[in-house]
Amino acid sequence: MTCSKFVLPRSFFTRDTLTVARELLAKQLARRVGESDLVGKIVEVEAYGGADDPASHAYRGMTPRNQVMFGKGGFAYVYFTYGKHYCLNVTTEKEGVPGAVLIRALQPVSGIEMMRRNRRRKRLRYLTNGPGKLTEAMGITKRQNGLDLTKGGELFIREPQVEEDFEEVSTGRVGIRVGVEKPWRFYIKSNSFISRK
DNA sequence: GAGAAGATCTCCT
DNA sequence: GGAGATCTTCTCA
Fold first, then answer.
1. Is the CB of A121 under 7 A from strand B?
2. pLDDT tens profile A72-103
3. Residue nearest to nucleotide C9 (CA to C1')
4. Which residue, of A64, A112, A138, A192, has the fewest CB within 10 Å?
5. Which residue is nearest to nucleotide C11 (CA to C1')?
6. Which of strand B's nucleotides are less than 7 A from any protein C-beta?
7. Residue A104 near residue A130, CB atoms below 8 Å
8. DSSP letters of chain A?
9. Neighbours of A69 (CB within 10 A)
10. How many angstroms separate the CA atoms of A93 and A97, rounded?
């Protein structure tokens, strides 16, 4: 069962990458595994561009890995890094324009017991407070690369049932060596699931 | 075909 | 607070 009226439509994603990144805060990432639903509130994101952004995978043009970033917005871009970790991005912009938003941290909403099993950790705070951690908690791997997130299938993004006020903070991006000066990281102020201060 | 770097996490001191 | 783990992907020859 999917509450499709809450699923974010294509038009949400096919906009400017920075706009999409900011508006993704406080939305819910939902993952369906068999009978179970894993849901987390998005509390931290980073925007990645194209030829204007040396930190982006798309900076040097299209490759087999990053081709999803060049398609239209609203698809999952999952890549493997550091020999251990997957990172989940949401593509943005229209067809032919590269752009993506890295989901860096979630606040668990439901399916928490399954997240604990996936992570083999008990402490709630360490289940999803980092890009490699949240993919492990939600069972996301390269198999989810290229999935359409607007269909309400095994992976999608939806409006929260209850709107909450929050204060947005923007800083330089984390864990990269170039392009650190761009204030393209956004997170919800004073949320305890942020990956780094 | 080889070499190097990477949008990170965990464990150890 | 710091280093090691570990493998995919890209670049260059």
1. yes
2. 999 999 999 999 999 999 999 999 999 999 99
3. A65
4. A64
5. A60
6. 5-10
7. yes
8. ---GGGBPPHHHHSS-HHHHHHHHTT-EEEEEETTEEEEEEEEEEEEE-STT-TTSTTTT---TTTHHHHS-SSBEEEEEETTTEEEEEEE-SSTT---EEEEEEEEEEE-HHHHHHHHT---GGGTSSSHHHHHHHHT--GGGTT-BTTS-SSEEEE--SS-----EEEE--SS-SSSTTS--EEEETT-TT-S--
9. 26
10. 6
A34 touches strand C (CB under 7 A): no
- For the stretch A122-165, pLDDT in tens is 999 999 999 999 999 999 999 999 999 999 999 999 999 888 89
